[in-house]
Amino acid sequence: MDTRWLDDEELDAWIRLIAVVELLPGVLDTQLRRDSELSHFEYLVLAMLSEADDRVLRMTALAARTNATLARLSHVVSRLEARGLVERSPCPQDGRATNARLTDAGWDAVVGAAPGHVETVRGVVLDALTRRQVRELGEIAGAILTRLDPDGRMTPPPRD
Amino acid sequence: MDTRWLDDEELDAWIRLIAVVELLPGVLDTQLRRDSELSHFEYLVLAMLSEADDRVLRMTALAARTNATLARLSHVVSRLEARGLVERSPCPQDGRATNARLTDAGWDAVVGAAPGHVETVRGVVLDALTRRQVRELGEIAGAILTRLDPDGRMTPPPRD
DNA sequence: GCGCATTAGTTGACACGACAACTAAACCCG
DNA sequence: CGGGTTTAGTTGTCGTGTCAACTAATGCGC
Question: Which residues form a coiled coil (chains A, B) (predicted)?
Answer without folding.
Answer: none
